[in-house]
Amino acid sequence: MNNYTTPSRNATPNEYTFNEPPPTPSASGSSRGAGQSSAGVAPRTSNMDDDDDEMPPAPNPGSNTAGLVTMTRPMYSKKNVALTADSVTVVVELQAAVSPAVREGLDLVVVLDVSSKDNVGRMKTAMQFVINKLTPTDRLCIVTFADGATRHNQLRCMTAAAHKDLEAIVGGLKLATRGGGGANIKAGMDAALAVFTSRKHTNGRTTNIFLLSNGVQSSTTGGGGGDARLVDVGNVAVFTFGIGKETDNNAVLSTIARKSAGGTFSTVQDGADLTTPLAELLGGVLTVVAQDVKLTLKPNRKEKHLDTMVVAPGLDYQQTTTDDGKITIQFGALFSGETRKVVINMKLLPTKEEEDEDEDEEEAEEEDAKLADAKLSYMRQGDKDSGKAPRLIQIQRTPHPAAAAPAGGDRHSNTSSVVVVLELARRKHAETIRAVRQLADAGNLDVAKDTVMDALNGLENIMVEEEGQKLVVDNLRDELRQLLALMDNKDLYSRRGHPYALACETSHAHQRFAAKGDNSRSFATYRMDNHRDEATQFVKDLISHQGRRH
User: Fold this and answer.
1) Residues 308 and 260 in one domain
2) Which one, out of 91, 103, 285, 332, has a CA that is 20 to 30 A from the CA of 134?
3) Could you tell me if 393 and 359 lie in one domain?
4) Is 47 part of any domain?
């Protein structure tokens, strides 16, 4: 039985205008904001309703919600450590189920920059695909912006009637008439966030924004509306898509994504397909298996093995530490098939007293050092799941420790250490891309290219055998080669290399896929790849259909 019921309302979608004067009746009786033309949409009849978001269907609890997110056994850089002061690097990995029985409901606001004539048509095509992929479980709101922002509909459950209404909205999108330079990205973000602030139905639903812009951000002083980078997005995931070559705009969109709860910045070149990048990220937000995913690391001080425990940098997720040293990392929502790796650097105290330093090492005994507990928790379908018992982080201490795995790895290293080596290499890779971008931004292209070549040579020293491990290395190599190609000259770097590097940075910082217009599939899930193939066929069919019509 379908539990969904639609509140009574006029079939014509509502419009809500932000940062503009209240609507005044026109001669025809329709409502139109004074700044309506800046939003690029023809006037529509307004029928205000007290309920600003439609009630979604009751969630299907599924037959089994256990194990939607799991934690693997901790992996170590060494098989064992010395009895004297020593150190070890530990990787804790969280894994989201690949084929879950249930998913969270999607609440999506798509924010479209209609300030440029070059991309309105591509936005329409991309939005057709998005609308077609959504079901009554999902809710969608469309916002457009240029000088100001206009919200075109309430948060609609994507029934057949909603599909028709929102397709009409998309079909009516037009180039905005602007009064000044740049686009008011902040107004678009404010309008989108207001959708979530006013929601009444929130249980078991995820909050996501797709922000598409190709215009330079309007002046942050005077009447420009302010800097969108300073907007507090809270726990909303914001996926930004930079269309075109405007360097300043790409930096703004990248910052917004990185500050959000798991968003990424994708780059789309002038004239390139826009449907596929949106489809790929849609394949993620449509498969959220759990929200409020947290990893808590609790140090074990009783056995006096642990000196310090520090989460390594390179992870752009909120992290808190209590006075007793307990560390909690908040990952937000996880897509089906996604993983999150946390690197922990631990320093160990010596087990022998100073006066025993001359004691025969043969008399020293091996022991297992319990260093910390790792605890997973998350929300699914509105209920908290504490997961299984905490994982124990422990390692053997011995008077004769084995040598650590080489920095580049080798074919004889144990599986655990290879995983650690690969994750450290990936993080170093992300740091390299950031450094290269900063060098290139400063005009030091030759030094930047040399840095990329050094990083490529370093990847050649990583020897792995498993296909999944090879794929990780191949993706890193592909990203570096593409970045190197995009630094051939200053103009090419400014147009394409700079946004490409920013996309790589947000992707690695959140361990989540970003579309970059290349062959690299770092962090892509099965459903993202599936949506990419469907979008490609969708665009081909659309072009073929248009060709037959003409």
Assistant:
1) no
2) 332
3) yes
4) yes
